[in-house]
Amino acid sequence: MEIKEYPGKLTPFVVLTCLIAATGGLIAGYGIGISGGVTSMDPFLKKFFPSVYRKEKQNQSSNQYCTFDSQILTTFTSSLYLAALVASFFASPVTRIFGRRWSMFAGGVSFLVGAALNGAAQDVFMLIFGRILLGIGVGFVGQSVPLYLSEMAPAKLRGMLNITCQLMVTIGIFSANLINYGVSKIEAGWGWRLSLALAAVPATVITIGSLFLPDTPNSLIERGHDEKAKEILRKIRGTDDILEEYSDLVAAGKDSKQTRHPWINIVKRKYRPHLTMAILIPFFQQLTGINVIMFYAPVLFKTLGFGSSTSLVSAVIIGLVNVCATFVSIGTVDRLGRRLLFLQGGFQMLACQIILGTLIAIKFGTTGEGTIPKTYAAFMVLFICIYVAGFAWSWGPLGGTLVPSEIFPLEIRSAGQSINVSVNMLFTFVVAQTFLPMLCHFKFGLFYFFAGWVIVMTIFIALFLPETKNVPIEKMILVWKAHWFWNKSIPDKNEHVSTKEMATI
């Protein structure tokens, strides 16, 4: 299938705007990374979760699988994701009616207030309420930033620029891990406050940055600002030859204006492939098992017998691997395509999960009793790092931001992205809330459980996801029409596809 590229080039202006917008990923990453670290700090547990702290000390030589099984402790972590789920639905009309950048601004402000409450928390209620405000910020930013990046980027480099958001997520996680390690050395015991309060730094970056961003041509046309859209399009493409792309955007904008109820329209037959991907890709992403590692890396290592300081160091190593591997995705996604990275990453994660489950089974068995020698522990960390690398150049950036944000037509784009974020947050919440009880009951079998899901999702990608690299975002209908399964859902007549383009399919 050949699709003509629009004229234009990668301009410094579009790079700068995309980098500023991508900093929204920092708040999501910091929120993910910080919770696992502070919940492994004794002063934090003693103040807010004393029963967990007592259980940890009493169980140091007994069942390593069940030490941290506390619903109130997991509620602290997972409340962010439940709040983000709900917030994403409110973000959809804001993003559509007021533009992408104002959703980013709202998310930044909410995250800023949440960081202040968490840093000053005196009781569990204050702690969790601050965490909920962090979640609202993540919901708004997660809904708007990927759309902004996909709409601003030229088609041939959309993957690279979109994945900068996921890069910021990994940097946020890595920064949180470093800060957790550093503040754990503060003997006075208030280091956890510093960890939580420093969430204000990434929140300030996206809050202020969003005020200086231009809105996307797609959003401007959708809201009736055609001339302004034309001006921005010239600026981001670095050429006056924008007629073809502008005409496609206007056609998409016309449909969007006629679609008054995107939440109703998205369930129509012609949007069936889009809706399927918006639900199943984020669903599968959470069942890769990555958040088991990223949320609870320090807790997990501590549970497996590592010392407190060693567990935080291991989390820092994992965070660094996550950042570096994301650069691999940035450099290859527009050349190798989305499908190849998805499939390769799936096989890599599957192998590592089977090996890790087996290593834990050999050492702890079903009783959870025992300790891990240093050499054995280093071997486990190695395979965890290989697993994280596989996720970081496949399901992380492709499933989290890129593919869901580039497949929707303009008239349902904000609603579709809200569904993507809400499903992602729902199952992030479920995994965060159930992981510790599952570890307690499934034991080493938990790794095999997630490995089974990796097999399912890899088969799904192989059969049902078409390749979307280098396809202009408003011509994405072509890939669905060319697909062996989804072409049954796409009507033969479509105003965005010319006769000549259809002939290339």
TrEMBL record:
The keyword Membrane applies. Residues 17-469 form the Major facilitator superfamily (MFS) profile domain. Keywords: Membrane, Sugar transport, Symport, Transmembrane, Transmembrane helix, Transport. It is a multi-pass membrane protein. The chain crosses the membrane at residues 12-32, 72-90, 102-121, 127-149, 161-179, 191-213, 275-299, 311-333, 340-364, 376-398, 419-439, 445-465. It comes from the Eukaryota. GO terms for molecular function: monosaccharide transmembrane transporter activity; symporter activity. GO terms for cellular component: membrane. It is found in: Membrane. PROSITE patterns: MFS, SUGAR_TRANSPORT_1, SUGAR_TRANSPORT_2. Belongs to the major facilitator superfamily. Sugar transporter (TC 2.A.1.1) family. This is Major facilitator superfamily (MFS) profile domain-containing protein.
